Structure prediction request, 119 residues.
Amino acid sequence: WIDLSTAAFQISSTAAKNADEEVERISPAEIILPEHEYEQLQSNSGQSVLESCTILPEYHLTAVPDEWYHDDVKGKMTSSHLLDSHQFSHIEKMAGGGLLNFILHTQKSIVPHLCNPVR
Prediction:
């Protein structure tokens, strides 16, 4: 997660069964999801890994392009720009890259300074 007011950039992973507790702990103003995950969640298809997270409907959910989460996107911020490959797992780096691209897309006029990501 990122707190733009403090420049805090935190990355962690949790088991799906603990997702509700983690979301409540962070209490985000907005949750971004890859488009495919958002669509599966909205359709109640049973295919979303996030369907076990029952409190998501209480939060503002935003779908973003799936490619924002991939390392091989030209012209986009990828996880390798800021994330130490030894400190974070592959999935954490993908999530961090997606979040960085969201910030770059939504804060076009003034890209905020962010602290180095920590666990």
